[in-house]
């Protein structure tokens, strides 16, 4: 399998999986996409119904790794990683209301869906870096969950340093402590004065600084890295196949921020899974919903919300969908994305927008509606949802159609957001035993202004110490 950039101007043609795993973002600022989509027949999908999660993940992800990670090695990684999840089914389905299912993706070590991919990425990086005799410096931006998942997956690894930028004061306390209590020597946490979009822009700016990129051996584990998306595809197959696919259509509802998780669902559809609708759920930062309604993607200030992991205006993976909807015309895709960054507005060609609307729905819930949804799902169905999951379920409920299972991504454990859960239900969710002492663990974190030079300096100083 080879890859190409959504902006199409890369000099080195057709990198393979190991190359794009380590580089993360294409040199031209675009995002890597597979050169061709694997296509799966209904017969193959029926065979996949019987596979345990780790083997289904091996089959799916193996389509993207090609020969760069030998199949037995990939299978061993998947079995090791998913064998440690707290639920035997890894990503179980729970019917919350008639025809409305929660696909629980939070049974990994850091209690959010990010573990589903990140645990595997830790193993893949180690494997490829050892094979190549290289080191990498991973830089990630987080609104709370990617950071903790990445630190857990990469802490203590010999050939990797990891630096995570989070927006100061804009994560839940549990999310912050999950990051800042990781004090291994290869880890640096930076609290940035600004919001998540600024953190993500800083990461992209470090990638654009060619000299710095080479100097530190920069890698990314945000969902700008295709490997993250690839490892998030299997659970959509698993859920749909468990509910009658490929002989029955299903729909998915996904609480959405950076657009990575729903892009993974779209990818499963593109590979042959019969999926009827993909429903984007937003909080009051509803840029995607407004776009889907009016073909008008206009940036506004980010408002802090009860679902902080979705407090975002620039959804990086939207570029991948746009690229596909423009029939892979990289020049047009690049021009539209550059215009968006320059003006803060984007309207896509009408046929591309219509093609998105044929599949995608969007709706938004402000904080009051989120709390109401959390209370209703708890009172009526005894389902305790974190604010992000509640938005996913409420989105699913809004677009549910008779006879078609609606599967909502349950993206975080309620204990990650105890304040919102208490406010909505009066309940005090408890952390699982392995995190029971989280509030008494020492924290380590560096504060920096949201300026490229200050962040690059902090990274250099960290590498010098390590
Ligand atoms: C709990 C939770 N839900 C939803 C999202 C949004 O997912 P995505 O960024 O893939 O759209 C995130 C962050 O990514 C998250 O941490
Ligand atoms: N909500 C995310 C933001 C980054 O998302 P990613 O999937 O691109 O890593 C977070 O939890 O940090």
TrEMBL record:
<dbReference type="Pfam" id="PF24857">
    <property type="entry name" value="THR4_C"/>
</dbReference>
<dbReference type="InterPro" id="IPR036052">
    <property type="entry name" value="TrpB-like_PALP_sf"/>
</dbReference>
<keyword id="KW-0456">Lyase</keyword>
<dbReference type="InterPro" id="IPR004450">
    <property type="entry name" value="Thr_synthase-like"/>
</dbReference>
<dbReference type="InterPro" id="IPR051166">
    <property type="entry name" value="Threonine_Synthase"/>
</dbReference>
<comment type="similarity">
    <text>Belongs to the threonine synthase family.</text>
</comment>
<keyword id="KW-0791">Threonine biosynthesis</keyword>
<keyword id="KW-0663">Pyridoxal phosphate</keyword>
<protein>
    <recommendedName>
        <fullName>Threonine synthase</fullName>
        <ecNumber>4.2.3.1</ecNumber>
    </recommendedName>
</protein>
<dbReference type="GO" id="GO:0004795">
    <property type="term" value="F:threonine synthase activity"/>
</dbReference>
<dbReference type="Pfam" id="PF00291">
    <property type="entry name" value="PALP"/>
</dbReference>
<dbReference type="Pfam" id="PF14821">
    <property type="entry name" value="Thr_synth_N"/>
</dbReference>
<keyword id="KW-0028">Amino-acid biosynthesis</keyword>
<dbReference type="GO" id="GO:0030170">
    <property type="term" value="F:pyridoxal phosphate binding"/>
</dbReference>
<dbReference type="InterPro" id="IPR029144">
    <property type="entry name" value="Thr_synth_N"/>
</dbReference>
<feature type="modified residue" description="N6-(pyridoxal phosphate)lysine">
    <location>
        <position position="114"/>
    </location>
</feature>
<dbReference type="InterPro" id="IPR000634">
    <property type="entry name" value="Ser/Thr_deHydtase_PyrdxlP-BS"/>
</dbReference>
<dbReference type="GO" id="GO:0009088">
    <property type="term" value="P:threonine biosynthetic process"/>
</dbReference>
<feature type="domain" description="Tryptophan synthase beta chain-like PALP">
    <location>
        <begin position="100"/>
        <end position="334"/>
    </location>
</feature>
<dbReference type="InterPro" id="IPR037158">
    <property type="entry name" value="Thr_synth_N_sf"/>
</dbReference>
<comment type="pathway">
    <text>Amino-acid biosynthesis; L-threonine biosynthesis; L-threonine from L-aspartate: step 5/5.</text>
</comment>
<dbReference type="InterPro" id="IPR001926">
    <property type="entry name" value="TrpB-like_PALP"/>
</dbReference>
<feature type="domain" description="Threonine synthase N-terminal">
    <location>
        <begin position="2"/>
        <end position="82"/>
    </location>
</feature>
């Amino acid at each position: 399998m080879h890859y190409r950039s959504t902006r199409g101007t890369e000099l080195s043609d057709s990198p393979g999986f190991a190359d794009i795993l380590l580089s993360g973002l294409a040199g031209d600022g675009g995002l890597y996409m597979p050169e061709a989509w694997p296509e799966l027949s209904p017969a193959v999908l029926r065979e996949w119904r019987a596979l345990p999660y780790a083997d289904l993940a091996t089959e799916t992800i193996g389509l993207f790794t090609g020969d760069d990670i030998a199949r037995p090695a990939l299978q061993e990684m998947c079995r090791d990683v998913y064998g440690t999840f707290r639920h035997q089914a890894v990503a179980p389905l729970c019917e919350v209301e008639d025809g409305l299912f929660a696909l629980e993706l939070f049974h990994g070590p850091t209690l959010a869906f990010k573990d589903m991919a990140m645990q595997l990425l830790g193993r893949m990086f180690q494997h490829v870096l050892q094979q190549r005799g290289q080191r990498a410096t991973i830089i990630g931006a987080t609104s709370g969950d990617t950071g903790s998942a990445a630190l857990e997956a990469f802490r203590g690894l010999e050939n990797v340093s990891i630096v995570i930028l989070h927006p100061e004061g804009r994560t839940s306390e549990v999310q912050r402590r999950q990051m800042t209590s990781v004090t291994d020597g290869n880890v640096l946490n930076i609290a940035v004065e600004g919001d998540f979009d600024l953190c993500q822009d800083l990461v992209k700016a470090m990638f654009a600084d060619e000299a710095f990129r080479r100097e530190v051996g920069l890698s990314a584990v945000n969902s700008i890295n295709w490997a993250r998306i690839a490892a998030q595809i299997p659970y959509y197959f698993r859920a749909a196949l468990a509910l009658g696919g490929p002989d029955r259509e299903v729909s998915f509802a996904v609480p959405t921020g950076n657009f990575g998780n729903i892009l993974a669902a779209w990818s499963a559809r593109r590979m042959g899974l019969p999926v009827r609708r993909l429903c984007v759920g937003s909080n009051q930062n509803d840029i995607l919903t407004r776009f889907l309604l009016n073909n008008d993607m206009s940036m506004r200030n980010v408002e802090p919300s009860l679902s902080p992991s979705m407090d975002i205006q620039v959804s990086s993976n939207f570029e991948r969908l746009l690229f596909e909807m423009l029939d892979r015309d990289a020049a047009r895709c690049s021009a539209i994305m550059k215009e968006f960054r320059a003006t803060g507005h984007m309207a896509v060609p009408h046929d591309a927008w219509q093609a998105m609307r044929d599949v995608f729905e969007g709706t938004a819930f402000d904080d009051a509606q989120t709390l109401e949804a959390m209370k209703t799902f708890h009172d009526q169905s005894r389902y305790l949802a974190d604010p992000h999951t509640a938005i996913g379920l409420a989105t699913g409920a809004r677009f549910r159609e008779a006879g078609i299972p609606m599967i909502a991504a349950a993206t975080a454990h309620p204990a990650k957001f105890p304040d919102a859960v208490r406010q909505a239900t009066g309940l005090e969710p408890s952390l699982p035993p392995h995190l029971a002492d989280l509030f008494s663990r020492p924290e380590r974190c560096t504060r920096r202004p949201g300026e490229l030079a200050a962040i690059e300096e902090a990274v250099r100083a960290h590498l010098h110490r390590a």
